[in-house]
Design a protein that fits this description.
493 residues; single chain; mainly alpha; elongated
Length: 493
């Protein structure tokens, strides 16, 4: 009896969840001004809950296609072969046409999907082999080889399409659906074939993940270690061909390139790690395919391929703007922070060097002079040829950070914290200048510009290494002297 009670409890819980889901759907539709009766949202609910068998099968197939395209597209992006998918997709057209003609001549209607995909696979693979052969046997670049193969194979396909239109079965061939994509015409068996092939591609990419990673990042090292680079390259290309072929009916050969390129390019804005890149690309490709399939099920005349590409493009634009690694906004913020840091450090360095020059004391006695010595705005302005508005901005920033204060005498003074920070900045700058003079053979008259380009990003490890290199020349190094002085310039070895 306990099993019966458990079954009833599960059924009640499931009914409760469905009712809550329906309630929130109705509330959402009311908020956007849509009809609020349940009869009006029944078609939408049937699609969202995948109640129709054919919808379930198609959604799963397209979802797996998007994941497979995202996975293999990540490796193609890193191999700088993003346009290979474009050449492959166009190279499949003559295979589709030839397969249709062969099946029609054998007494069939020529529409058997496995036969059509097999023909596309043959010519797509042949196109890839042609690209690899042209690149290895000639001095032409890969983009030139891709352009040649793409145009020649597509021209062959268009010619064969013209011949098919004159055949008895040609008027009902429906081959144009492979050019633009038509998910609505997909049968359950077709979707299962697409999903099965996508699983094979995903499994192969997972099994060869380590090898593909080595191939993408250091092909020369992989070859030196005895890895079969050419064989791995061909396997990767065959996976691209497979994904392209199985996506023809869903997305079409024209838009298939977008599903291979946009998800990994989108994921690249969020991560620097390959494993995370592959995962994100697969998720973005899968979600794009899922939304496209659902949209096609809701609106029969809406092409799923176009919706998939538009959804993926939306993800791309959002990631391009707000990506945590390479997004435009985050890079703008980082550039602004770096510019602010550089400007503040230049100001502190100018104040320190002015105190150093004005006091005439050594580095150890400068701390005692720091509090009593100040500089006016007019005297500070020519120190680095600042614009007045620019200098005011850096002074406000330094005072906000507690490094500088405006005294009652109208002069600007370094605080205790500002003095420590200015001393660190000047020390790192001079360490780097001395290193460039001693080891990079840069003239002292030119070294300041080169030091300014790198001193602001010197880490603790780099500073320690510079001190170790220069300790023999300055055994008791507290504050290195300026390398622009005559004594250091004349003492260069």
């Amino acid at each position: 009896m306990s099993g019966v009670f458990q079954a009833k409890a599960i059924a009640r819980a499931s009914l409760k969840v469905r009712m809550q889901f329906k309630f929130w759907i109705l509330i959402s539709l009311m908020l956007v001004g849509a009809p609020a009766t349940w009869a009006d949202v029944t078609p939408l609910m049937r699609v969202l809950t995948l109640q129709d068998y054919n919808t379930r099968v198609v959604v799963v197939g397209i979802l797996l296609l998007g994941i497979a395209a995202g996975v293999i597209g990540s490796f193609m992006l890193l191999r700088k072969r993003a346009l290979v998918g474009d050449a492959v997709s166009h190279a499949t057209l003559p295979g589709l046409c030839a397969a249709f003609m062969i099946m029609a001549s054998m007494g069939g209607d020529g529409k058997w999907l496995p036969g059509l995909l097999l023909g596309a696979l043959v010519t797509g693979g042949l196109g890839i082999l042609m690209v690899l052969w042209i690149r290895s046997q000639t001095k032409l670049k890969e983009d030139t080889a891709l352009g040649i193969v793409l145009s020649v194979f597509f021209g062959m396909g268009v010619s064969l399409l013209g011949i098919i239109q004159k055949m008895r079965q040609g008027h009902a061939a429906g081959l144009e659906s492979f050019i633009y994509g038509k998910t609505a015409s997909m049968l359950a068996g077709d979707a299962m074939l697409i999903g099965g092939a996508a699983l094979v591609v995903i499994s192969t990419a997972v099994l060869l993940f380590k090898e593909f990673r080595l191939l993408c990042f250091d092909e020369a090292f992989a070859r030196s270690q005895g890895w079969p680079v050419r064989a791995l390259d061909i396997v990767m290309m065959l996976l691209v061909v497979t994904v392209t072929v199985i996506g023809l009916q869903a997305v079409g050969l024209i838009l298939m390139i977008a599903l291979l390129v946009i998800p990994p390019a989108t994921a690249r804005f969020w991560t620097e790690h390959l494993q995370t890149l592959v995962w994100l690309s697969a998720i973005i490709g899968g979600i794009s395919g899922l939304i496209g399939a659902l949209a096609s099920a809701l609106v029969p005349n809406l092409p799923a391929g176009a919706v998939i590409v538009l959804v993926a493009a939306t993800f791309f634009v959002f990631s391009m703007l707000f990506g945590s690694r390479r997004g435009v906004v985050i890079r703008f913020i980082e550039h602004w922070k770096l510019s602010r840091k550089v400007g503040r450090q230049h100001l502190l360095r100018a104040l320190y060097e002015w105190v150093e020059e004005s006091s005439g004391t050594g580095p150890d006695e400068l701390a005692a002079e720091r509090a009593s010595m100040g500089i006016s705005f007019e005297s500070l302005l020519p120190e680095r040829a600042w614009h007045p508005r620019q200098l005011r901005r850096w002074l406000r920033d330094a005072m906000g950070q507690g490094n500088v204060y405006d005294g009652s005498d109208g002069l600007f003074h370094l605080t205790r914290e500002g003095w420590s920070e200015a001393r660190r900045v000047v020390r790192n700058h001079r360490l780097w200048e001395i290193y460039l003079i001693e080891y990079a053979d840069i003239a002292p008259s030119h070294v300041d510009r080169d030091a300014d380009m790198i001193e602001h990003v010197l880490g603790r490890a780099m500073v320690d290494e510079l001190e170790t290199l220069l300790r023999t020349r300055y055994p008791q190094l507290a504050m290195p002297p300026s390398p622009h002085t005559l004594s250091l310039a004349g003492g260069r070895s």
